[in-house]
Design a protein that fits this description.
Blueprint (H helix, E strand, L loop, with lengths): L2 H12 L5 H13 L2 E8 L6 E3 L12 H8 L3 E3 L2 E8 L2 E9 L7 H18 L5 H5 L7 H9 L4 E4 L2 E8 L7 E7 L3 E9 L3 H20 L4 H16 L5 E9 L4 E7 L3 E6 L2 E4 L19 E4 L4 E6 L1 H4 L2 E2 L2 E2 L1 H11 L5 H16 L7 E8 L4 H4 L4
Antiparallel strand pairs: 1-2, 1-5, 3-4, 4-5, 6-7, 7-18, 8-9, 9-10, 10-11, 11-14, 12-13, 12-15, 15-18, 16-17
Helix pairs in contact: 1-2, 1-4, 6-7, 7-8, 10-11
Pfam families: SpoIIE
GO molecular function: phosphatase activity
Keywords: Hydrolase
Length: 382
C-alpha cells in the first residue's frame, strides 16, 4: 500500500464525521495536485447520484459516474477520475476527482475511495449528514422506519452475492427484507407486515427484530419462524400478521432450507431458465397461536440465482393490465449477466416504467447468487 493511501486512511479515521470528504480533498490536492473532489451518493431509488456538496444530480446512464457505479471499476474521462465508493459489496456511490494526471493514478485513488466507503459506513449511524444528502425527496415516516431497519442494500464475498431493493423507495410501507451471514451460512428473508403506513412498518419492525433474536439464538429456521409467530400473536392476538419467506443457505454444500409463511414467490434462475419453486404454503406469522412450521430443502448448483419476490411486483397494474408472470419471467432472464444489485434495480425500474410512475403497493425484490464453495469457506476449519 502506498504512503498517500496510508495517510488518507489516517486522515479519515481522525476526521470529524461531517468532514470526511473535506479531509480527503485536502490530502488529494496535496499528494496528487487534484482538485474539485466530490462524493456522489446513490439515492434511495438507485436512480440518481447526488453530490454531497449540493448541485445537479447525475441521472444520465452514460455519464462516467454511472459507468463507474454500474461496472464497479474506475473511469478516467477528460482528466477526471471516477472511483467506486464501495465496501464488501455495498455500493455507496462515486468519488469524483478532477485534475488526475493519468490513468496510472486511478489504482491508488481507488484504494482511497474504498477507505472512504468503510469510514462512511462506520460514521453513518451517528450522523444524518450522509442520509439527508442522498435523498432526492423526503421519505415518509413509514419509509424512514423501513430503511433504518435494513441490513444494507448489497453484500458480497467469494461464495455469494446478495442484493435487495424496496419500492416505492420514498414511501414504502410494510415490505422489507433482512439478511445475515457467518461465513458458513447466509440467511435471507422477505417480510411484509399487513396494513398501511406506520402501522405496517411497525409490524414489520417487530417481525424483523423477533426473527433476528431467534436467529441469533442459533435455532433452526422453523423454530425462528415459530418464535417470531408467537411474539406477533402475543401482541396482536391474530388481528395482525406478517407474510414471510425465510431462507438459509449452506455455503459449503449449496443446501437451501426454506420456510414459506405466507410469502408468494421464490424463483430459481439456472442456466438462463426460470422456474418457480413450489413451497408449502404455511400460515403467516402471528395469524394463529402456536403454529408449527415445517422446513423444505432445495439443492442448489454453483452459479444458481434465487429471487425472492413480493406480491406487489406481480400485481402492479398499468393501464388496467397486471404486470404478471410473463413480464416478470422475461425480466428475470434478462438479468442473467447482471450483478444482483443491477438485477433488482432493473426489475423494479421496469416495473415503474410499466405503471408509469410510483407503485401504489409495496414491492420488494431480493436476489441471491451462490457461486459454490470458494476461498472464504476453504480457509475455515471443517
Amino acid at each position: 500500500m502506498s504512503e498517500p493511501v496510508d495517510r488518507a486512511r489516517a486522515a479519515l479515521v481522525a476526521a470529524p464525521v461531517d468532514l470526511l470528504v473535506g479531509r480527503v480533498a485536502t490530502l488529494l490536492e496535496r499528494e496528487y495536485g487534484s482538485t474539485d473532489i466530490e462524493l456522489f451518493q446513490v439515492d434511495y431509488r438507485l436512480a440518481a447520484l447526488i453530490p454531497l456538496g449540493g448541485g445537479e444530480e447525475v441521472r444520465a446512464p452514460g455519464h462516467p459516474a454511472w459507468r463507474c457505479f454500474d461496472h464497479q471499476s474506475p473511469v478516467y474521462a477528460d482528466g477526471t477520475g471516477y472511483l467506486p465508493v464501495s465496501m464488501r459489496g455495498e455500493r455507496r456511490g462515486v468519488l469524483r476527482v478532477a485534475r488526475v494526471a493519468d490513468e496510472g493514478q486511478l489504482a491508488g485513488l481507488s484504494e482511497i475511495a474504498t477507505a472512504l466507503a468503510h469510514e462512511l459506513a462506520a460514521v453513518d449511524p451517528g450522523t444524518d449528514v450522509y442520509r439527508v444528502a442522498r435523498r432526492s425527496r423526503r421519505l415518509t415516516l413509514a419509509a424512514e422506519v423501513q430503511w433504518e431497519l435494513l441490513p444494507g442494500r448489497s453484500r458480497s464475498r467469494p461464495s455469494f452475492s446478495l442484493a435487495g431493493q424496496l419500492e416505492p423507495a420514498y414511501a414504502v410501507r410494510g415490505d422489507s427484507f433482512d439478511w445475515s451471514d457467518d461465513g458458513d451460512r447466509v440467511w435471507a428473508a422477505t417480510i411484509n407486515g399487513m396494513g398501511e403506513g406506520v402501522t405496517a412498518s411497525m409490524l414489520t419492525t417487530l417481525a424483523t427484530c423477533a426473527l433476528r433474536n431467534a436467529r441469533r439464538a442459533g435455532i433452526s429456521l422453523a423454530d425462528q419462524a415459530a418464535l417470531a409467530d408467537q411474539a406477533i400473536y402475543d401482541l396482536h392476538g391474530g388481528e395482525q400478521y406478517v407474510a414471510t419467506l425465510l431462507l438459509e443457505l449452506n455455503l459449503r454444500s449449496g443446501l437451501l432450507t426454506a420456510v414459506d409463511a405466507g410469502s408468494p414467490r421464490l424463483v430459481l434462475l439456472r442456466r438462463g431458465e426460470v422456474s418457480v419453486q413450489r413451497l408449502e404454503e404455511q400460515f403467516p406469522l402471528g395469524m394463529f397461536e402456536g403454529t408449527h412450521y415445517r422446513e423444505q430443502h432445495i439443492r442448489l448448483e454453483p452459479h444458481d440465482r434465487l429471487f425472492m419476490i413480493s406480491d406487489g411486483v406481480l400485481e402492479a397494474t398499468g393501464q388496467n393490465v397486471r404486470y404478471g408472470e410473463t413480464a416478470l419471467d422475461r425480466m428475470l432472464r434478462r438479468t442473467t449477466p447482471m450483478s444482483p444489485l443491477d438485477a433488482v434495480r432493473s426489475i423494479l425500474g421496469d416495473l415503474r416504467a410499466f405503471v408509469a410512475g410510483d407503485l401504489t403497493d409495496d414491492a420488494v425484490v431480493v436476489c441471491l447468487d451462490w457461486f459454490g464453495p470458494q476461498a472464504d469457506q476453504k480457509l475455515r476449519p471443517a
